[in-house]
Amino acid sequence: MSSASSSTANNKTGRNQWRDQPILEAIPDLPMRLQKYINEGIRQKDIPEHVRKDCNGQIVSLSSIKKFMKRFNIKTVKHSGLSDIEKGVAILRVVEQDPLGRYGCRLVKEKLQLKGTHVSRDFTMTFLKAENPDVVARRHPSTRKQHKHGIYSSGPNEEWCLDGHEKILLSMGIAIYGIIDKFSRMELALYAVPDARNSDVPVAVYLRAVKQQGGIPLSTTSDKGSELGKLISLVQELRKTYQPYITEADVPSHSAVKSPQNITRERGWRPIWEKELANLLHFYRTGQFEAGYLPNDDFHIALSRWLWASVVQEKLNELRVENQVHTIRNQPKILLPTDARRIDLYTDPLFECL
């Protein structure tokens, strides 16, 4: 009886996807991947799908994921391994980079999360209220302007919105040029440039984004700046060459609108300026006095721009990572998808929008 049973067994070795050892043999770096997923803001319920996509179709159930997280002591908000004092110190280190008080509780939490320090939003808010109640009160939703809704996009890469930002230009001699995907609201390119009105800048930034993303968008949108002539000719020629079945009459390859109508790009600038660039400008201005900067000295001007351009670009690179893993809060009244990370909306919109 036993011999017949063993000869007809479907799985003689007893090794299957539900046992710990075969999973770790197939994905030896699974614990490290789990911590990375948590640090990047991926919800536990979505981790099995990310494992499947990142590990050649390997299937790991959610229950197994939870067991491994417990077994390997993966740091989360509930199991951070930190005392309240250590959490407070970590929050203060982030707030030190925000002398103007522009960081909200959620942004502080996400900055810590990317570094592997997990603190709940409620704890962060309570701590910041005790540390600086006036700043927290200024950021309450009732004190901020509510925007109208109505922006629509059918999917990622349907429309890229681009523009320059010059609020730090006069003081630092550095401008920013950026491209944002309308559907996911994910920053595709952010570059520190000497002059955002130079006609070569939009072309260079656009081509870098195309190379990085592996293709061109269906259309682009910008304001009506005179520096965009070269870019408009380029995107029209690329569309004609690589998407000849889509005519300009059906979908224009480029739309030039007034700045207030380039809403996705303009809204994207606001948090970048208010929460990051304004602080950089503050450090720049306070540092000028401490360093003995001479505003009429050509050498000081050139050296300052060279040094601070690198600082600004480094901050922009950090901002792009933070922007990608940021979860857009649930907003049922708007037409664009919400309640998901921007990078997931951009790379896998069908899964995230189910």
UniProtKB/TrEMBL annotation:
GO terms for biological process: DNA integration. Residues 1-21 are annotated as: Disordered. Signal peptide: none annotated. PROSITE patterns: INTEGRASE. Pfam families: rva_4. Residues 152-262 form the Integrase catalytic domain. This is Integrase catalytic domain-containing protein.
